[in-house]
TrEMBL record:
The lineage of its organism: Eukaryota, Metazoa, Spiralia, Lophotrochozoa, Brachiopoda. One of its GO terms (molecular function) is actin filament binding. One of its GO terms (cellular component) is actin cytoskeleton. Residues 1-113 form the Calponin-homology (CH) domain. This is Transgelin. It holds the Pfam family Calponin. Gene3D superfamilies: Calponin-like domain. One of its GO terms (biological process) is actin filament organization. PROSITE patterns: CALPONIN_1, CALPONIN_2, CH. It comes from Lingula anatina (Brachiopod). Belongs to the calponin family. InterPro entries: Calponin-like, Calponin_repeat, CH_dom, CH_dom_sf, SM22_calponin.
């Protein structure tokens, strides 16, 4: 529930839209679902990160329009580079089937926002940039003759002081 409250506070900070009324705390995921269910706050959030990515936010209370808002949010997340496995299904939010993945998606969106140089409040971890390295054949061959530190060391290795199998140890 802490992550859900953190996500709601972040949405509120980015969009300026009040979600946590008078500092109230939500008791369960059903209450969090009710706040995000219409998809308006999510569309406003993604528009704050990438202006104009959602062209029209539906303000209707009709179920199919609210689900369309959620779908617009999910499409925008994919356009920003979110992987398909990190994106929830519309019914996960609208019907409250899997709020964990919804909150996880919001945190990942926060990470993507940082990668896209979003200057507002942040949530989630900062994603690393690719740091590709190219080694020549000579460097690769030289590396094959190095004993890695994971293997331990062979310096100073001897059997001095070891007792052969079956022999008694003198003390």
């Amino acid at each position: 529930m802490d992550q859900a409250l953190e996500a709601l506070a972040w949405i509120e900070a980015v969009t300026g839209r009040p979600l946590l009324e008078n500092g109230m705390s939500y008791k369960d995921q059903f209450e969090v679902m009710q706040v995000l269910k219409d998809g308006e706050a999510l569309c406003e959030l993604v528009n704050a990160i990438a202006p104009g990515i959602v062209k029209k936010i539906n303000r209707s209370k009709l179920a199919f329009k609210q689900m369309e808002n959620i779908e617009l949010f999910l499409t925008a997340c994919k356009q920003l580079g979110m992987k398909d496995v990190d994106v929830f299904q519309t019914q996960d939010l609208y019907e409250g089937k899997n709020m964990y993945i919804v909150i996880n998606c919001i945190h990942i969106l926060g990470s993507l926002a940082q990668k896209h140089d979003f200057q507002g409040p942040v949530i989630g971890v900062k994603l690393a940039d690719m740091n590709k390295r190219n080694f020549g054949e000579e460097k690769l061959k030289a590396g094959q003759h190095v004993i890695g530190l994971q293997m331990g060391t062979n310096k100073g290795a001897s059997q001095a002081g070891m007792t052969a199998y079956g022999m008694t140890r003198h003390m």
